[in-house]
Amino acid sequence: MNPARDEGVDLEINGIEMHVALRGDGEPLLLLHGGGGAGVNWKGIFDAPAEGFRFVIPDLRGHGGTTNPSGQFSIRQCARDVLAMADRLNIDRFKAIGVSLGAKTLLHVATLQPQRVTAMVVVSATPYFPGQARSAMAALTPETRSEAEWAQMRSWHRHGDDQILAIWRSMRELKDSHTDMAFTPPLLATISARTLIVHGDRDPLYPVPLAVDMYEAIPNASLWVVPGGGHGPIFGPNAAAFREAAIRFLTQDQN
Fold first, then answer.
1. Alpha-carbon dihedral of residues 149, 172, 20, 124, nearest 10 degrees?
2. Cα separation of 74 and 173, whole Å?
3. How, if at all, do strands 27-32 and 94-99 pair?
4. What is the pTM for the complete model shown?
């Protein structure tokens, strides 16, 4: 298929209907959002496609405009969905940026099919879930969500409150998973993509040593620790600096 410029498509893959926004022209650049978010979140960083790139922006399984009829969720399955999406769009090799859930999805993508990813930026990733992250997941219940959070979620997810509840349930259930995120140094060493690891030095979920572990294990990696940055330290006042640094990194091999 050859989607037209700046449009959205809905793809039947892996038992779900995946919504994908397509913007701009050029080399494919996948943008993968965080858990509980949606592809629309990237507008907070990229108000327009970067020159020379075709933005491919999926809503991951169960998020935004993408369904998840089975109710089953894993980050590894998100990666399989992304690879199936690329196949359907006739994208053989690509570059990518992912934040949190999207970044962890990219670790799976880049180890499942290393030859597909030429360069990637992973923001607030982790090789495994440490204790503080599991505690935060356990606290993720509807009763602890504010009206403002409900309103925000309703603006991102098109399938109603049942979808939102399913997202929170999926995120909460990850606290009991010890196999979905289990990236050892030898496994990370199979990643062939040039990789920029971006991490906040005040991340309450994944402490900086985990980012350093990934940096030391991935063969062609660079590390940017954001001073004063929390989890997902690329939005708001940091957006412009991140956008410039990410695009510069992704185009290095073109210079």
1. 90
2. 10
3. parallel
4. 0.96
Angle of the 131-138 helix axis to the 161-173 helix axis, nearest 10: 150
- Domain hosting 67: range is 7-128+178-254
Sign of the dihedral defined by the CA atoms of residues 38, 103, 177, 12, in that order: positive
What's the rounded Cα separation, in Å, for the pair 76 and 235? 26
Which residues are paired to 12 by β-bridges? 17
Q: Is 142 within the bounds of a domain?
A: no
**Partners of 224 in the beta sheet?**
198
Cα separation of 133 and 137, whole Å? 6
- Burial grade of 62 (CB within 10 A; 0-12, 13-18, 19 or more): buried
Residue 157 lies in a domain: no
Phi, psi of 129 (to 5 degrees): -85, 115
Cβ-in-10-Å burial (0-12, 13-18, 19+) of 17 comes to middle
Distance CA 43, CA 28 (A): 17
Question: In 3D, which of 8, 30, 28 has the Cα closest to residue 19?
Answer: 8
CATH number for the domain harbouring residue 234: 3.40.50.1820
Cα separation of 210 and 143, whole Å?
31
- Number of domains the chain contains: 1
DSSP secondary structure letter of residue 182: B
Give the model confidence (pLDDT) of 45-82 as tens digits.
Answer: 999 999 999 999 999 999 999 999 999 999 999 999 99
